[in-house]
């Protein structure tokens, strides 16, 4: 919004949002000598950004050149490389590789995992390794992702001012379109804050905007298992300032359950094997399969961890339906008794406590969140599936288990446990995930791109809002790694900027 009037207050740098990206940007700008104000629309009590729902994984390139090759390959569909800024990918690789050293300098703790790039068919996947944050320096009473707790601690120990309960409404611009401040709204009214150096957009995506999801995502409904406060505010502000958007129609997607009870309206990740992680673990995996609306398997369960949503896009043009929405998760008593059906170490049923999941799944069964039956035929009837088709699907799957080879989809043999017994269960699954990635496009210096070419002066972005991850996601922890990396890039470049004659 073009603004020529006075400001109620002026600081060097305003950071919008206090997730991981906003926290790192604020700390970096502060340590570079800037006066920093963080504006956060959530109240301090119960502050739940997406970063707090995460498990704390972050990926680290152990070979920068290999990581550049890997990320570049993710943009090539049918062998054609889309328009990608090589400098941006190089900045990502170099800066994410520096994340462990930055954490070391600031007292962060982590462990290295035996997990590599998620797409072994692409060159360079071995150059990526996944780390996991350990608790270190969280504020008193904090519960949630240890990385976010650590970063919140860094903000607090520096005395950086955080204005909670304050929503950013407009980016204020001068006659040339350069950003010179922010208009905010809080209980006591409107406040216009000027900046001497720059503004960092780190307000997250649009997971909780049904309007934006319907407009931009290729499939609906989609349910996300994070904060209910990510309503696309940054997209609105960026568009009004003339930003170019990208990656609005993609996201790192999963199959998610949805239990609209106990006040939480988002999605919830599932624990397919009862192992407490995406893989089956060391124990014998219980029997589980996914079937579509025709009662047939269509995927090597559980699918690619952050690209499973791509399997759901097969539309039946004759009926104008998506036969794979919902997908039905079918399992037996062994899986029911193994462990909780959803993760309780992260996500809405984790430490943030949006709702509580019982240890034995019985409370959720009584609520009707899990569909039970005494036979495969009865389960099909409960789910509205063709009984004969589901019985045939289960019989064929059990035959694969007996042979030790999934002839249909090549599922990992260690997970080929037959379905059996006298109790069967089903849970409907939907497309979803942890976060969206669309938003204002950024460059290697975290500057927001203008729709007219070049960049918007004094405007920077970091985090999932305008993430550089497009159709494919590198591996677990890609988002936190990007938050750390581009939080630093945005923070130091904003701190070094100058608005007008300031």
Describe this entry's structure for a reader.
- With 502 residues, this protein is of the alpha+beta class.
- The protein has two domains: 9-53 and 144-251 and 434-496, FAD/NAD(P)-binding domain, CATH 3.50.50.60; 254-433, Flavocytochrome C3, Chain A, domain 1.
- It has helices at residues 20-31, 50-53, 64-73, 86-97, 99-106, 146-157, 210-216, 233-240, 333-338, 362-366, 376-383, 387-403, 478-496; strands spanning 9-16, 36-39, 57-61, 76-77, 80-81, 109-112, 128-134, 161-163, 167-173, 179-186, 189-201, 223-224, 245-246, 253-257, 268-269, 288-291, 327-332, 371-373, 424-433, 439-440, 447-449, 455-461.
- The strands form five sheets. Strands 1, 2, 8, 9, 10, 11, 21 and 22 form an eight-stranded mixed β-sheet that branches. Strands 12, 14, 15, 16, 17, 18 and 19 form a seven-stranded mixed β-sheet that branches.
- A hairpin with a 5-residue loop joins strand 21 and strand 22.
- Helix 1 (20-31) packs parallel to helix 13.
Number of domains: 2
Q: What general outline do the C-alpha atoms trace?
A: elongated
Structural class: alpha+beta
CATH third-tier fold name of the largest domain? FAD/NAD(P)-binding domain
Count of alpha and pi helical runs:
13
Distance separating the two termini: 20 Å
Question: What's the alpha carbon Rg, rounded to whole Å?
Answer: 23 Å
Tag the structure with descriptive keywords.
502 residues; alpha+beta; FAD/NAD(P)-binding domain; Flavocytochrome C3, Chain A, domain 1; 2 domains; eight-stranded mixed beta sheet; 22 strands; 22% strand; elongated
């Amino acid at each position: 919004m073009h603004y020529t009037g006075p400001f109620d207050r002026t600081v060097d740098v305003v950071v919008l949002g206090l997730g991981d990206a906003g926290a790192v940007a604020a700390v970096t700008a502060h340590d570079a000598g800037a006066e920093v104000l963080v504006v956060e629309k959530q109240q301090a009590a119960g502050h739940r950004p997406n970063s707090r729902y995460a498990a704390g994984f972050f990926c680290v390139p152990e070979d920068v050149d290999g990581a550049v090759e890997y990320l570049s390959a993710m943009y090539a569909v049918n062998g054609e490389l889309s328009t990608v800024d090589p400098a941006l990918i190089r900045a990502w690789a170099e800066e994410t590789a520096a994340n462990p050293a930055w954490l070391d300098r600031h007292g962060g703790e982590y462990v290295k995992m035996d997990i590599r790039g998620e797409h072994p068919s692409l060159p360079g996947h071995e150059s990526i390794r996944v780390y996991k944050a350990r608790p270190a320096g969280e504020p008193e009473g904090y519960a949630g992702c240890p990385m976010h707790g650590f970063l919140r601690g860094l903000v607090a120990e520096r005395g950086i001012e955080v204005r909670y309960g304050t929503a950013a409404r407009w980016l204020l611009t001068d006659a040339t379109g350069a950003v010179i401040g922010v208009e905010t709204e809080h209980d006591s009214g409107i406040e216009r804050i000027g900046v001497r150096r720059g503004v960092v957009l780190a307000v997250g995506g649009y997971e909780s905007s049904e309007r934006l999801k319907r407009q931009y995502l290729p499939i609906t409904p989609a349910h996300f298992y994070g904060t209910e406060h990510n309503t696309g505010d940054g997209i609105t502000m960026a568009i009004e300032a003339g930003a170019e958007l990208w990656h609005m129609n993609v996201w790192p997607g999963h199959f998610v359950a949805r239990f609209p009870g106990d006040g939480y309206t988002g999605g919830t990740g599932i624990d397919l094997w009862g192992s407490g992680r995406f893989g089956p673990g060391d124990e014998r995996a219980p029997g589980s399969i996914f079937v579509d609306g025709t009662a047939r398997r269509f995927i090597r369960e559980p699918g690619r961890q952050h690209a499973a949503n791509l399997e759901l896009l097969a539309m039946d043009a004759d009926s104008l339906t998506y036969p794979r929405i919902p997908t039905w998760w079918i399992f037996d008593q062994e899986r029911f008794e193994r462990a909780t059906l959803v993760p309780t170490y992260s996500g809405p049923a984790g430490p943030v406590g949006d709702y509580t999941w019982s240890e034995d799944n019985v409370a959720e069964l009584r609520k009707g969140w899990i569909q039970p039956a005494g036979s495969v035929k009865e389960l099909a009837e409960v789910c509205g599936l063709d009984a004969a088709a589901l019985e045939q699907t289960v019989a064929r799957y059990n035959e694969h288990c007996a042979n030790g080879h999934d002839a249909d989809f090549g599922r990992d043999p260690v997970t080929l446990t037959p379905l059996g017994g006298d109790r069967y269960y089903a849970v409907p699954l939907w497309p979803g995930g942890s976060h969206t990635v669309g938003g204002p496009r950024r460059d290697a210096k975290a500057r927001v791109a203008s729709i007219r070419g070049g960049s918007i002066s004094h405007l920077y972005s970091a985090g999932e809002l305008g993430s550089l991850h497009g159709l494919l996601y590198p591996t677990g922890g890609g988002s936190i790694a990007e938050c750390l990396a581009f939080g630093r890039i945005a923070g130091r470049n904003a701190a070094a900027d100058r608005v007008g004659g300031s």
